[in-house]
Design brief:
2 domains, MetI-like fold
Amino acid sequence: MGAYLIRRLLYAIPILIGVNLLTFALFFMVNSPDDMARAHLGNKRVTEEAVQSWKRERGYDRPLFWNADRDGAGALTDTLFFSKSLRLFAFDFGQADNGRSIADDIIQRAPPSLALALPTFVVGLALNITLALGIVLFRASYLDALGQVVLVAMMSISSLFFIIAGQYLFGKVMLLVPISGYVEGWGAWRFLVLPVAVGVVAGIGAGVRWYRGLFLEEIGKDYVRTARAKGLSETRVLFGHVLRNALIPILTGAVVLLPLLFLGSLIMESFFGIPGLGSYTIEGIQAQDFAIVRAMVFLGAVLYILGLLLTDIAYTLVDPRVRL
């Protein structure tokens, strides 16, 4: 088990290095610091002095990989690659253009993102699996056909419709919950009920259809026919055998979504005014704050690789044969 995990972890290191190099190339080679300065200053006729001043203030006036003006180790350390890219591996995200520490902002905004994403993930996963098993239980019936129509219709509707409709109906007409906003502490539940419900409903169409197809594939296997031949009820076959043997693909779809629990939902947080990491990323893009965007891209890559590693660990717990 330990050797397997170490091997999977070693596989993740070159992937993370590749992501870091690609991110650096996109931000500093394809999109040069001069381009960043002009985009941030927002003036087509901006002077060269203003561009150089903007670069000096943010440390973008250094060479990319090699500083010929410095001796010894300074030739490597006093470069954009070392100061803006390699330091990310130590989670040193630096400062945003407004002078705030990006790491402090991430720590401050992570709890609201978790408060929104975690219940949405758990409730959505449980509801989707339960509904999918229920539809499979009545497969090849009118209820199954009706369910397929409803699911396809829900998949065809944009999540923005569910957001706006929920805000209008429950927030403006019925006055049950606030339309947007957020407070710290236990009082936050009033601001989270609606976005969690919207997130769960918006994901039912695709989620239930995916799990339904997964369970239907398992039903045609030999172990299911053997269980039925022993006299087990259809409900026990589905929940006791089919669900258990479908755990690996379920874990594949579920664990990979774990990074979203930390990074938050860009659309949901923006529409409901929740100060999480999703809205933080949107604010960085709107303000053309490249330091924030670069930090969030790297953090997303780290969390995604961590999600894949957790998926591999879950595989070994569900099916020890995977270790081989």
